[in-house]
Structures are given as C-alpha cells and as structure tokens.
C-alpha cells in the first residue's frame, strides 16, 4: 500500500506546527507556501520601527524541516483547490492529496471604510513591515527639507488605527523610535511637533485584557508621548488626512497626516471563499470541533482561517500551533481508522509590550502582570519562541544593543519588492520620492 | 564673513572619508546621496551568497556623521551640476556651493558585448547582491520541480564572468553555498550536475596579484568544485546561454545557463560625462595630482570616478578613503589661501578570500600570504573596517555561526525593489516566477 499523501497549504505557525507533528510517521507530506521562509509575525512591529532586521524574524522553511525526510517543501502559489476531486492546482502543476490542511492565515479587514485600502499601511506580513519602516524614515527625510509648515506637519504625524495588541505595541515602539533615536538624526526638525496618534473605536485599549491592564497601557503610552483617543471611529482616510468621529458625541474630526497605519481589523484569507468553502462574516471557514470541514472530512482548517463551531479562539500563535498539532493527530487517527477528536485548547495567556520596562501580561486568564516583570517576560517568551537559535542570537544582540545604546540601527530606506498579491496591496515609495499604490 | 560651503555628492568610502575629515573645522558641509545608508561594498559577495544580511553591511549615514554638527546630510538625487555658476540641481531644490567634491563611484562596464546588459547580473551595489541571492535560491527552487533535463541543467549552471577579486571571491563563496549548504536543502537535485563556471578573459586569475597567488587561487577554486576557464572571452550572452571563445584557439563555445554574473569590467559613473566633465575611455574624470578638475579648481573628484594624471590607482577602498582625505585637506588649504598639494598614495596591499581557510594577500606590494593566515587576516581586516561596531558584532556572529554550523542562514527569496537608476538595471524576479528586466 502506498503512503497516504497529506498536503499543507501555508507555512505560518499552524502549517509548520502541523508539518512538524508528522515527524517520524510514514505519511508523505508536502508543504506549500508562496515564500521560501517562515515569518515570526509577533515581531513585525519591531521590524517596522527599525529595531530588527527583516531577516531576523524569518527562517528558511527548508531549514525548519531539515530533520524530517517525509516532509517535502515547494515554493509555489496555489491557484485553486478542487475539494471534490481532491486536487490542488498550482502555478505549474496539479497535486492530488488524500488529506489537506489549509493554513492560509488572515488578512487585513477594512470594513468598507472609504480610502482605507488605498491609503493605509497594513501590518500583516514582512513586506508590510518593511514598507512601513521605509515610509516612517522617508517622512522624516522629506520633512527635514520641507519649507511649507502644514505639509511638514502632515509628514510628521503618524496615526495608528486600532487599539488591539498590534496597535498598542506599534504605537509604543514608534514613540520610542521617534523621541529616542530619530530626535538625534534630524536637528532641523522640532520634535515637539511630531505626533503619534492612536485611534481606538472601542471604549478601551486592549479589549481582550482586564480593565486595569488597559488603563496601564493607556497611561504608559501617554507618558511616552502617544495621543491615545478611545471611542474614536475612523470614517474616511484620504491621502493626507484621516477623518474620525467621537462615538459618544458624534462630532467629526480630522487629523492631517501622510501616514495612517491600519491594525483595526483582521479577516480570514479570501482564498477560502474563492475556492468554494463556506465562510462566516469574517471570511473564516466554519469547521467542526475536530477542525474538519463538514462537507469534506479529509480537509482540515487551522490557524486564523479556522472558525470552529460554538467556540471562539483568539487569533494568537499558540492557538494556531495547537490547531496544527490537532489536525495532524486527527489525520493520523483517520488513517488508522479511528475517529478524529475535538481540539482541546489550553489558553496560556497573552502579552503586549508597550516600551522600555513596560508591558502587560495576562497568564492563563488568571495572573495579571504589568511593568518591568511583564516586560522581561515578554522579551523572554518571544526570544524563546523564535524559529531558530540563530534568530535568537541576532534578536538578542539587537535588543541588548538598543537597550544600552538607546539607538535603533536599522533606520534604512531599503524598499522590498512586494510579492504578496492575495493580501492587501501595501503602499510603497518610488526612488524619486513619490508615494505610489502598488497593485 | 560667512562660512565656506562644501557639497559632497556620494556617500561611499571617498565621500564619507571626505566628510569626516571636515570634523572640527568651521566649514559648512552638505553631503548628498540617493540612499540614506552607506554600503560596505567589499562584502557584497557575502550578501549575494546568503552569508550576511543586507542590513549588516550598511549603516545609516546620519549615524556615521552624528558627532559632526558642521556636516548636514540629505537623501537626494542630484540631477545636474552647473560647474560654471557653482550650483547643484536636485529633485527639489538648487544648492550653491563654494567647493564641490564629486564621489559618485563607478558602475559596471559591459564593453558593448551583446546581451550582457540585458541578461547578466551585475554585483556593484546592495540591490544587485540581493537580486543575485534571490536568483540563486530561486533557480534551485525551480530546478527541484523541473522535469525537463536540459532546462534543469540551465537552472543549475552559474557562470561568473571576470576573474578579478570580485569574480574569484564570488565563485568561492558560491561553491561553498551550493556544495556546503544547499546540497542539504534539495534532496531531489543531483548536485554532481550543479556547475559553477568562472570565465576569465586574461591568462590568469587576479591579474594584479603575483603569479603564485593567482595559481593558488585557481587551484583552490578547482578543489572547491569551480570550473575555472582562463583565456576565455565572452562574446555574447543570451537568456539561457553564455557564448565564449578561447583567446588562443579562437574556437567558440557555449554554456547553457540561466544565471550569468558580470564582474568583468568597471567604469566611472556616467553622470560625470553627462554633466560636462572631460572623461577618459573608462568614463573616469581626468584630474590634477591634487584631485582638482583642471577647468574648475574648486571641484575635486575622488574615489573610483577619479583618474589622476600620470598615475594609475587600483579601485580599492583605501584609495578612495585617502583621496577623500586629500580633497578635504586641499579645500581647507585653499580656504586658507594656500596651494593644494598632490595626493601621496600609500599602498597597503590587497586581499582576496576564496573559501574556508583559503585566501591570498599581498601586503605593501611585498609580503605575499596564502591559506589560513591570509584567510584570518582577510576576516580580521574586513571586520575592523566595517562602518559601525554594531555591524561588526552581527557580521562576526554570522561568520562564527556559519563556520561551526557549515550553514548559511540567509537563503531567502526576499526581493528588494530597485532604487538605483543611474547604475545598470539589475534583473529581478516577479512574484509569479518570471524573470523580468527592470528599467
């Protein structure tokens, strides 16, 4: 009898976790991703704020799977999946499968707000974070030369939309970059005029955290120079301004700015719907508690794309990793003729870094930490979870360096060529300085 | 009396050296470069061969000049220089100068050989090296999936044209990458079929070195698996083949390959001629021994762009650095009413790394070293010359890591968006895998 063939689409946390769980089995596994590297997404904001090199939060997928001869990898873009005939169509071939794990992740959600797609910088992948880094430095380079007052003010105003973990972490890091490092680079700029604004539609930051942690996060950000506006809903974004209204008083306001960063919403990768799966309002695929698609019991959905019935999991790396393991174990059970088992999620908690010596952590839903201890824990956990030892050494070196020197050294304008087409088109800059939309 | 204003165009070795020599003087200096970073060019080949991250061989220019309040920097593209009215025209403004230092460097020279510009990968700047890295890894990704034998062979053949320092270093590093690291990544590829070919038009490699060092370099490369062909002149390059003839027997031969790397020639940046300066056959500006342009005594040419009368300097970093210092000192003398002095070049030697424990070094034109000692010296000197301590730590970490693990971890396909327009257009890849010419 031939070995069963499992195909995994997507090499994020869930896909890699699923592939690794097949180690030592007699199943033939093929992992597909459009990139040849795995990205450690929780550190994207540190790439965007000149703290880390993009190469330090990614790892070649072939390296991650070196010890597993039964797992093959191919850099390939999946065009279509035929769930009935169990065949995947890529750029250059057709791949049949016995079992399929879909781990295509999520993408930014813009809620149809005018101008968001066209003018905002998302922060969902490596290209996004490098684009954002280039944009931030570029704004300062232009502002330094700009004679017109209001145009200079636009260049020096950075608005972050979304007060969840990504928005809070980015706001803190950005404030540190600007008021800690860039202030020494641009003597001609009056840094009292540089604004970092954080707009949150809900009534508090970090809605999933206990109230006193949200309050702590807001106070810390304000101390660092961030203008935090809660209950502030964005209504429109234009090339040089963001419009928002106060949720209580409904009065409309404007912030003139060149850089609007969108961290306010996330939805499942639209390919799932395109390929014919049933998705919820959020673009996620509704699956059984075993992570199987109801119509196709040999197809599993894991990670941000999965919406298990009657359950709501946070979009966190540990969830994706546990789902990857569950899917693999269930496939192995199916191959042996046993019934797949529902996933049992163990919530380990969540943490958000705000700045130097400042973070919040909620462990196992019970223990709450703030300040120095939470900050140390955040650093330790993220270092430990990085995909390779080599990544750990370089990231640690960067952190130690910037801690003692108060300097962020990756403040380079080094545009990446975008390769990510199914996610929202990021904005970039051309070499002659014009901002362009890349389609 | 107002301070004299000096403008320096180009922040390579010569430009940075000139700017730094103005430290502590009362001259107002403006340094212009199209990038906001300085590139340590001698390590480009290690970026191209997955050994170093691109960010580790560059340094923000503002950081390099932090301690010098009299030196301003602007990221700007110079469009034109009017040497008569002493005005520089950039993208967005006119900049008058009292003294000008032109340090615009060099670019690849293609000698009008058909197809070289269109199909070869140059290795003259950071974008080039990242493009080349992506291309090398991409060829292996495609070859792994390619069923057609001859097409697979084309993908797995890498031809380097030019047996000077760049060509030899790249050939050695590429052989180490392929036969040391990639061999573990691609189990489906027969690595006995992978070819690295080095074509040198002259009769020996490293023509500027003593004969026995050239012989050593050739023997080492051959041991590492590189096919070295001397007296082999390229006559044409096509998309999937390079044509060359033996200089002695004049018989024409072909190597089918997808990747041809051009390191065979260098000429002065063409902007000098475009702006009306008198250049020699090699595009370099003929200058007085004081580095002044004969027609415009307040204009200095330094680095690869300068061709001092009656003298021939190698295109090396130490030459550029000494020329930058000379130009600055001569300007300071002119301001004080003294005569500029001719440059006195002190040759410190040159070194070429070939591979692990293998290098050649010629010190002060007298002492010749090969093997382990030369290799250690090469590493030490290049580490010491890196622009910042932080660069040194990261590069050292990478070197130590890859020495002990025999692994090159930056084997990523992470396309850079090219920003360098006045240098030859590099080739890149699009996200759907087609090679494209970027104009």
Automatic annotation (TrEMBL), chains A, B:
One of its GO terms (molecular function) is NADH dehydrogenase (quinone) (non-electrogenic) activity. This is NADH:ubiquinone reductase (non-electrogenic). It comes from Brunnivagina elsteri CCALA 953. Residues 5-324 form the FAD/NAD(P)-binding domain. Residues 347-404 form the External alternative NADH-ubiquinone oxidoreductase-like C-terminal domain. Belongs to the NADH dehydrogenase family. It catalyses: a quinone + NADH + H(+) = a quinol + NAD(+). InterPro entries: FAD/NAD-bd_sf, FAD/NAD-binding_dom, NDH-2, NDH2-like_C. Transmembrane segments: none annotated. Gene3D superfamilies: 3.50.50.100. It comes from the Bacteria. Its EC number is 1.6.5.9. It holds the Pfam family NDH2_C. Keywords: FAD, Flavoprotein, NAD, Oxidoreductase, Transit peptide.
